[in-house]
Amino acid sequence: MTDLTPTSASLQAFQLQERLHAVEVADSAQTMFSAVEALAELQDEGAIDMLIRVLGYNNPGAAVAAVEGLIKIGTPAASALLSQIDGYNYGARAWALRVLAGIGDPRGLDLILTTASEDFSLSVRRAAAKGLGTIQWEKLPPDERPAAQIKARDVLLEIVKQDPEWVVRYAAVVGLQGVAMAAAQAGFASLAEPILAGLGDRACVDETPAVKARAQWAISQL
Fold first, then answer.
1. Are 137 and 182 in contact (CB under 8 A)?
2. Where in the chain are all domains bearing CATH 1.25.40?
3. Structurally, what CATH architecture does the domain formed by 106-222 represent?
4. I need a labelling partner for 147 at 20 to 30 A (CA). Which of 34, 77, 176, 195 fits?
5. Residue 204's closest CA among 195, 193, 215?
6. How confident is the model at residue 1 (pLDDT cuts 50, 70, 90)?
7. What gap in Å lies between CA 159 and CA 164, rounded to an integer?
C-alpha cells in the first residue's frame, strides 16, 4: 500500500493486527473461515505468513479463503510459498500449488507442470492445468520463454489426451488456449500449430461434450 496517508496507514496496520488476532483466537470452523476471509480482504503483504499457515489447517473453507487472498497479493505470496513448499505436508502443498497456479509466477512452472500431470487429486491437477494458461511469461528472460512455453504446451497436450477426468482435460484445453495466445503475442506463433491440432482432436473424439465444445471454442479464438 504505497500511497497511504499516515492516518490511513495507521488504520490499515490496526486492521491487519486485529484480523490476524481474530484468526489466532478462532475457536470453530465457521469463525476461522470468517476471520480468514476478513484477513484476506485486506490484500496486505503482512497477512502472507498467517494465510500460508491456514493452508495447513484442517479447514477447507478457510483454506479456500486463504488461497484467494494469497492469489490477490500475488508475487510476494508466491515468493514466500516457493521458499517453504518443500516442507509442507500433502494437504498444505496441494493448497499452495493452487495459489502458485492462480498467481502464474514462472518460478513455480516446473512444480506446476509436475502437479498437472502427476498429482493424484483431480482438483489439484485441474487447478495446475488451468494455471499453465496464465503463467506470466513476460517475467522470464526473452531467450527462455520459447522453451518454457513448449514445455507447458507438451505437458498440456498429454493431459488433454490422457487424463481420465474430464474436468482436468477441460482445464488443459483452457491452459492450451492461454499458452497459444501468449506465444502468438510474443511472436512465437509456430508453437500454436500443435496446439490447434490437439484441440481439433479433442473437439472430434473426446467422450465428454463439454470438453469437445470448449476445444472448439478455443480453436475459434485462436
1. yes
2. 106-222
3. Alpha Horseshoe (1.25)
4. 77
5. 215
6. very low
7. 9
Residue pLDDT, tens place only, 78-114: 999 998 887 788 888 889 999 999 999 999 999 999 9
Q: Most distant CA pair in the chain: distance in Å? A: 61
pLDDT at 214 over 90: yes
The string of DSSP codes covering 76-116 is HHHHHHHHHGGG--HHHHHHHHHHHHHHT-GGGHHHHHHHH
Report CA-CA distances (Å) from 172 to 45, 129, 165, 196.
31, 5, 11, 13
Q: Which amino acid is at 117?
A: S
Spacing of C-alpha 198 from chain mean position: 23
pTM above 0.70, yes or no: yes
Instruction: Report the topology of domain 1-103.
Output: Leucine-rich Repeat Variant (1.25.10)
CA 92 to chain centre: 14
Instruction: Tally the C-alpha atoms within 13 A of residue 180's C-alpha that lie toward its C-beta.
Output: 23
The DSSP H or E segment spanning 159 is helix 145-162
Provide CATH 1.25.10 ranges for the chain. Answer: 1-103
